[in-house]
Each structure stands twice: as C-alpha cells, then as structure tokens.
# Entry
Amino acid sequence: MPLPKLIAAASERLTPTDRRIAEAVLAEPTLLAFGTVSDLANSVGTSRPSIVRFATKLGFDGYSALQADVRAGLSQRLSRPSERIRQQDPSLAPSRAALENALASVFEAFEGDRLATLAAPILRAHNVWIISGETSKAGGHALHSGLTMIRPNVHLVEEHSSGRELSSASDADAAVVFDFARYRRHSITAARTLAELGVQIVAITDGPLSPLASITDTWCELKIPAIGPFDSSLPAVAAAELIVAHVAAQLQDAARARIDRTEALWEANTTFYTEPRTTPPRK
# Structure
C-alpha cells in the first residue's frame, strides 16, 4: 500500500509526534526510504523510539520493514520512464558518470572465478536458450550474435514463440536469462519452466531480490542506470560480450574453426557490401 494510504488508515491513532513524522516523510519520502532511524529522528526533532513506534502504528514489525516497503514502492515509481522523463538532467555529465559506474560494476561482478562460473553451463550445454526482458533485450541479442559464431545450437527465444521453441529443452541444456526491474512476466515464467525441466539457468539480473535469483545459484548482479527516461543497455551488452570472449577462449580450436567456416560462407555469398570497382577512363 502506498505510504499516504498507510498513514491515512492509521491517522486516528497518530499522536502529535507521529503526525510530525508523517508530515516529514510525506514531504520527502527519501528520508524514510534511504535514511537510518537516527537520520529521520534528527530531521523531525524526535527520538528513535518514536520513529519505531510510528512504524508499528502503520502495521509493520519495525522501522526496517517500513523502510523496505517504502523503498520498494519508491524504486518502482522512479523506474517508470514516465517519471524519469520529468526529472532528467539534460546535460551529459550525469549520464557519463552513470555509464562509467555501470561499466565498472560489470567487471566487479565478474571478478575472481565468477565469469568462469557463469560461462561453464554454456560450455557444456547441448542447447543454449537465451531469454530476455524488454529493456535487457540488447544483452540477449549481443550474446546470441556472439555465441552463434563460436558454437552450435544457440537459440534466441522470442516471447511469441517461446512455447514452441522451449518444448524441446532438456536437462542437457542451459538457459541465459537477462532481466532487470521492471521484470517481464515472460522471462520469469520461462526461466521457472526451464528450471523445472532440469535446464541449468544462468541469470544476469540486478540483485538478490530479483525473482531470477531465487531460481538459480548461477547469477550475477549488474547495476543498471537510467539514461534519460530509459534503462541503459550498456551493462547487459558488456556482460554478454565478456561471456562470449570467455567461451571463445575455452573452446579454442572449435571456435576458430566455426568462425572460419562462417567467414567462408559469408564470402561465398557476398554477404557484405563492397564498393564496386570503377574502370579507369581510357586515355
């Protein structure tokens, strides 16, 4: 329930101190969403026990439970493009900083043996199924494009055809699922269905609270910044490219042979455009 409705439902039980707290958090919800009990108490000019009692009067076990609920609601609201477009900074500086931090987070997520752990199911799978949400679609396409160049049986699953395509999945397969809040129903339900079939799930998502993190132990957390009104595709694409590079290095001769065959077919079919040669004029 939104914070204003929680406060309205408890209004008859609120003391004058409670009402000061309510006025403060309604005016600036981030005080509650991201501050400590002490931060909020100092801002309102009251005590920490008063803040905790306020939380219980709203129906929560304590301050942390209230904070988590408000934070989730605030994050959901701020994740909407319709909200972001009203708040965006038109300068490049915030976007540059956000993208640099997001790219750094990809390398942090893959530190140690994490990249090898994520790539291992792809290396041993008979089929690799790639599934994504809407805003993470660029990562899915980048992974599909790269993997199909270095190994067979790689499938990019579209929502409209997922039932038909995934009907042949088995426990010899792996699925790589990209999705970030706001999660698409299709990607979550498809991942759960595949997990029930014994398919090894590799999840590229945005944290331990993601529904994908509850499906598999093989997942990594990426930070997804907002660039203008929309989520950035950069972290998902960077993660996909690093996974492809690792798989290619592990496959070695098999990957090189497949790339050579593909290049030969492209050349035989004149896949790529070249400027026509012009005949020099006769003298």
User: Anything to note?
Assistant: The radius of gyration is 25 Å.
